[in-house]
């Protein structure tokens, strides 16, 4: 639930993040498209990596990668344009792979007869945090540039906490 609460917020606030780092207007205008490109690549490689290393290991690692890219590449101020692009692509890759592996991780612990019910409950219950997360993380930061960093810090800490809990939970 923590990850779903903070998963959508960087997608909504990507242009504000790019603008807060004073990157060129061309990159700012394409910030969401760059983020979605990373997400597309992450969704493609999630299945391949999950088959190779195990669904839960990759699921946890991709949540951690998304959190680390937010914390390391979105929170410092006045980053060069190349670092902003890497931050957008890195978060897109990690969050796209994470979202792809939600259903696979649920299937790996569910009996085949209960899978449909469990995945339905999972997405139904995690829908409300996904709707409330951008409001909680974003707050009023469209009024102040410094709030973009606070949003990234809050989102990354929630994602990191969720990854740590998944890693050490008995499953």
How many individual β-strands?
Answer: 0
Gap between N and C termini: 17 Å
Helix/strand/pairing class, anyone? mainly alpha
How big is the Rg? 16 Å
Mean pLDDT: 81
N-to-C SSE string, H for helix and E for strand: HHHHHHHHH
Major beta sheet summary: none
DSSP strand (E) fraction? under 5%
Helix content: over 70%
Q: Name the shape in a single word.
A: globular
Uncertain runs: none
Instruction: State the helix count.
Output: 9
Would you kindly provide a written description of the structure presented here, covering whatever features stand out?
The protein is mostly helical. 81% of the residues lie in helices and 0% in strands. The chain has helices at 2-7, 9-12, 14-20, 25-29, 31-53, 55-73, 81-109, 115-138, 147-168. α5 runs antiparallel to α6 (55-73), α5 (31-53) packs across α7 (81-109) and α6 (55-73) runs antiparallel to α7 (81-109). The chain starts with a helix and ends with a helix. The mean pLDDT is 81.
Overview features:
171 residues, 81% helix, 0% strand, globular, mainly alpha
Detail the topology: elements first, then pairings.
Elements: H1 2-7, H2 9-12, H3 14-20, H4 25-29, H5 31-53, H6 55-73, H7 81-109, H8 115-138, H9 147-168
Short summary:
This protein is mostly helical. It contains nine helices and no strands. The model has no long low-confidence stretch (mean pLDDT about 80).
